[in-house]
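1st attempt posting a full record on here, be nice pls
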Amino acid sequence: LKAVNSDPDYYKSRLGLGYIYLQKQQLPKAIVQLETSIELLPTLEGTFLLGEAEEAQGNQPRARQLYQAVVRVDKNSKLGKAAAIHLRSLSK
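the predicted structure (as tokens):
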């Protein structure tokens, strides 16, 4: 939070704060931070984490869209494979 306050336009601080909020199940706060991070600099990590936050929030269509974007960009990466697993579980 201190890093975001000192430089609100640095994507990585927003990404890290979003991750912390996600781990603490503070989903609305996580989504805001992760969306802001992606607006500043789109990354696979941010997109994947936002997908997890949306899924946990119950927004399956948005989560599916985000996971599909990760798979489309790099299906063979660790995140791409994890996103594919999430997509399969959302399809059940």
